[in-house]
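User: Reviewer 2 asked us to show a designed sequence for the structure in our supplementary figure. I'm pasting the structure tokens here. Could you produce the per-position amino acids so we can include them in the response letter?
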């Protein structure tokens, strides 16, 4: 039943800060010719946003159905006892043509009280225009009082660390870390399966409906970790490993690799550059695909790949699920 890679129909989201680069950079066909599309949800098991794939027999199946009804074949024995009711990760491509709001996600120990879900995430930069910026973490010495005052007097940007990324840069964003993606960036995002975001500051602009977007100042101030130092970009080790956390492990691979994963394990492949073929499936830059655990070693062999082929491998670590 599962003898190929599983690819899903993208779920496009209009955003006031979005654009059309998913069309121009990744050769996508967007749902309409004018709207600003800021996000493409590639792997999603949200109640109202379900990734759907078509199996070799023509049957359409949702990611939620795979997680609940075919867990061992698709996700492997190691995740059979995972307690999450839905697939635990959400993966997106973000096209930021304007600055996103400066925001924070609630930490696990406060999320239930604040009626939200924790969200730790990872950004991998696939395109950066000259001068594009990321806003991540507070500058040294910023206290809750200083930050709140800066929000009210319009100087908040002076409290946040500014970074200038380039393609290939990777950043780990734990819950509680204040952050924003700046204009001019296309980013692969891997995150916990959560859609809780508290806006701290939105550049004094209006939303698509012509009204200011809601801010969540008190929830933000409670969620922000004022003790964590601002982060730096992640460097891959000799094996390409970028991030190893309780929620996900991220590894970058290149065309010198001849196989995707090991039999019995589940992973997601996210194509950064070039093309590859495996298990009767061809992937190109921007494609995300689940590699089912049931695939044999022979089926995991790359039957074709370009010299520029580069991809991320995304795994859920067994027995370290970061649940609270």
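Assistant: Here is a per-position design you can include in the supplement:
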């Amino acid at each position: 039943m599962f003898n190929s890679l599983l690819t899903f129909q993208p779920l496009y989201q209009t955003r006031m800060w979005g654009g059309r680069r998913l069309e121009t950079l990744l050769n996508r066909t967007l749902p309409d010719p004018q709207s600003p599309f800021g996000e493409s949800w590639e792997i999603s098991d949200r109640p109202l946003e379900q990734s759907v794939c078509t199996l070799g027999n023509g049957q359409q199946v949702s990611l939620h159905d795979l997680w609940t009804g075919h867990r061992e074949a698709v996700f492997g024995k190691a995740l059979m006892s995972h307690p999450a009711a839905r697939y635990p990760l959400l993966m997106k491509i973000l096209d930021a043509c304007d600055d996103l709001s400066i925001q924070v996600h609630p930490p696990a120990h406060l999320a239930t009280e604040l009626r939200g879900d924790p969200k730790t995430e990872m950004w991998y930069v696939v395109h950066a225009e000259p001068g594009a910026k990321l806003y991540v973490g507070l500058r040294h010495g910023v206290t809750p009082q200083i930050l709140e005052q800066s929000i009210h007097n319009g100087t908040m940007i002076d409290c946040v660390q500014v970074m200038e990324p380039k393609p290939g840069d990777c950043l780990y964003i734990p819950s509680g870390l204040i952050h924003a993606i700046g204009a001019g960036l296309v980013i692969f995002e891997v995150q916990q399966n959560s859609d809780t975001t508290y806006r701290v500051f939105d550049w004094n602009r209006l939303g698509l409906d012509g009204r200011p977007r809601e801010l969540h100042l008190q929830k933000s101030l409670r969620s922000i970790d004022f003790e964590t130092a601002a982060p730096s970009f992640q460097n891959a080790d000799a094996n390409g490993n970028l991030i190893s956390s309780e929620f996900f492990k991220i590894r970058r691979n290149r065309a010198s690799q001849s196989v995707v994963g090991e039999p019995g394990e589940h992973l997601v492949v996210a194509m950064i550059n070039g093309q590859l073929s495996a298990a009767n499936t061809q992937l190109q830059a921007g494609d995300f695909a689940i590699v089912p655990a049931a695939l044999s070693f022979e089926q995991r062999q790359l039957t074709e790949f370009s010299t520029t082929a580069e991809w991320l491998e995304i795994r859920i670590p067994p027995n370290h699920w970061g649940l609270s």
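For the response letter, you might also mention the following. The CA atoms of residues 9 and 52 lie 6 Å apart. The mean pLDDT is 93.
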